[in-house]
Structures are given as structure tokens and as C-alpha cells.
Amino acid sequence: MTPPKQPVSVLVVIHTPALDVLLLERSAHPGFWQSVTGSREGNEALNETARREVLEETGIDAPLSAFSDWSLSNTFEIFSEWRHRYAAGVTHNVEHVFSLRVPEPIEVATAPAEHRDWQWLPWHEAAERCFSWSNRDAILLLPEHFSARS
To answer: What is the 3-state secondary structure (H, E, C) of the chain?
Structure first.
């Protein structure tokens, strides 16, 4: 039996220096576009969760040092259709925002059980396409966050 998911997750905005953003379309929900997301497993550090999820969902094998922790988190209500994955009574999740800069738009290998398609879009178009408010807001912060690190 699979242990319940932890209500602690990461959101990883993968982008290029030109601020093109990678979005993935959920297999179970066509039309739902998002960045890489996923729950922490065991006692792994959040940057390790970010790295693992990026590798699992895109095939991108980036070193831990390539991930930027934004020191930003969002708390949101878990959709009722996904609550069965969590312990009884868990209704909210805390999502921690990270980014990963790649040199240019690259081909990715999605996990078919999770994602059916992918695309690179300019940051403002990517933000508009996201179904999640926290994902949209993170992408809208990307130009400010990226310029602060440059």
C-alpha cells in the first residue's frame, strides 16, 4: 500500500534566459497546463524534491545547484478529487516555489501517466495558460526574480 502523500509540495518554473517557460499538460485533465509540481517524499529536502520531480516529469537531469529557491510558499485547498491521496482530514497543501533556468528551449520526455503534452511559451502567455493561480502568480514574478539574480 502506498503511503499517503505529504501536504508539502514544490512548484518548479523551468525557463530560459529569454523567459520562455515550459508548461506541461495534465494527462487526466486535458487543457490543464502547469509547471512541474510534486509532493515531498520521506524526509527529502525541498530542493531535492524539486530536482526529483523535474527529472521524473521532464527527463531534465539538473544538479541541485541549478535550482533557485524563491523562499516563497503558497497554501491552497486540495481539490476534492485528489484528497484520497492524502491522510484523512488533510484539506490543504503548502507549495514551495523554485525555478530552474536552462540555456534554451529543449526537448523534454514527459511521464505519460502524468502529462500528455508540453510546450515552451513566453512568460506572459505561459501565465495566462496555467490553470493554477499559484503557478500563474509565480510565472508573473519570473521577470522580477530573474533580473534580481542576473
So the answer is: CCCCECCEEEEEEEECCCCEEEEEEECCCCCCEECEEEECCCCCCHHHHHHHHHHHHHCCCCCHHHEEEEEEEEEEECCHHHHHHECCCCCEEEEEEEEEECCCCCCCCCCCCCEEEEEEEEHHHHHHHECCHHHHHHHHHHHHHHHHHC
